[in-house]
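Give me the fold.
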Amino acid sequence: MKFIASKGTEIEQADSPDLYAFALSFFKLLPSISQDMGFLLKMLAIPNDARLHPILAYLQEHLHENLKMPQLAAHFGFSVRNLSRLFNESGIRFSYYVNNLRIMRAIELFADGGKTMQQIAYEVGFATPNHFNRVFRQITGVSPNAFVKND
């Protein structure tokens, strides 16, 4: 997972066909590697519309901020309705996607060590540690503490 992540936020099939094939195969094998990590596949979003690529990259870079659809739409020159339509046509729910990105980043920070759960919760953009715990449990099926202990 870290190897794939080290290659950037996007792996384009046309630019890196071997790496693209590897990453796609890895994500397809993930459920058989670890039943507990099946939630990672739910986080994989491949937009149908290329206009979403810079928006998704922006979201990943600004997770620590209070991300809202109206501000995002204005930043990229869309109406809220048109941006919502782009997300929906790609099968991406905005709040679900942002929360998934935040949880993925939190898991990376767990692996790096050195930070408390509270520090990680704030760093990935949650307003409170309780909200972080609740969303983490919804997405992964376990609490952050249980996840770290099983890792």
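Residues 1-33 form one domain.
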